[in-house]
Write a structure and sequence with these properties.
alpha+beta, single chain, 23% helix, 38% strand, 230 residues, Protein Transport Mog1p, Chain A
Amino acid sequence: MKSLFLTSVFLIGVATLALSKPVILPVQPDLLLSALPSAPSSGKLLASFASNEVMGSGEPVTIATRRYEIPFEDKSVDPPVLKTFFLKLVAMDVGSRSETVENFQSQLAIAGQGAQDMRKVIDFGSGVRGVYCVVAEGLITCDALCCDRLALQMEMQGANEKEVASTFKALDLTKLADLARRLPTRLETSKRYTLFIVDELNPKKNRSYQVGTIDFSEEMRDLSINPARP
């Protein structure tokens, strides 16, 4: 399955040598974390952390991750048995990355059309639609888009397709959708960013730092006009 989060999205690093250009600033990590679904009453939150970083292209993004442990009573057998499976939810404010939105929309349009395409469309409500796929027995992944601004990726381990569908439908993404609709789209031309790392379960790891980008536009124009000779 072609993931919504392209490989280049996850290979994020500090952009100290990037082409600076006006960008849409993403949401702060703590705000994105606070909009993610809470653990079910019978479940447990295993991890909850977020950070904003600058990509090599000079575009800042914010990524928040939560991992859940969810008990599930399997009533398909007699007597019923208690199972445990794990959910990983990653949300990313794509900011200026319109290509991420376009990539998902193209996936949604063609999902399930080919005989070999195992992807299925799922509607979470609140303006969130996704495409999920059974990768292997006990492993199901889902890519979704929230109001054309927040990209979501979910991974379920230890559950079958029916159990995953039940869990997905129970996810309350209302706060996430409301946040996505309120995110600003103001362009920022600053070449310096303050980045934050937030870990809800381990607050001692919280920190902030500044990074800067270098605008190579003048040098690139000079090279195009006067290319280096061998």
